[in-house]
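A brief tutorial aside. Many learners find it easier to grasp structure tokens once they have seen a single protein encoded end to end. The record that follows does exactly this for Transcriptional regulator, BadM/Rrf2 family. Read the sequence first, then the structure, and try to relate runs of similar tokens to stretches of the chain.
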Amino acid sequence: MPRDNRLSRSLHVLIHLDRHVKRATSETIAKMLDTNPVVVRRMMSGLREKGYVVSEKGHGGGWELRAALSDISLLDVYQAIGSPALFSIGPAAESSPCLVEHAVDARLDEALNEAEAMLLKRFSQITVADISDDYLAKMKKLGLPSDTFPDCSE
């Protein structure tokens, strides 16, 4: 099962919009993420609905950051992209008359619900600015200026 990478991609774009480009077209972002502009527009629409970004159509248009990264948590972004399933494991999708399966599913549900609650709580404690700071620390460690634009399309 392929991983859902919308969260990491959305965070990636938010940091670029804050640090490197004040406005970027869906085509530019798509090239950076090695995907299709339609996928970018779909991914970014939830961020726009929450007010974290705005988009302008036409010549000179594109996506622009509207909120400070310190005001956006991982939980905010996760919810903006539609709160996709966090785990690919879990109970069977179809109900079974087997009591063993009922016992297994009940314990799996309980454990996964606890894990999800803990993960979402942690997401609420991490801001996009925290991740941007991690990126800047890596740049500094490599001796690169913080305004260097990394080529993410390679």
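Self-check: The radius of gyration is 19 Å. If you spotted this yourself, you are ready for the next section.
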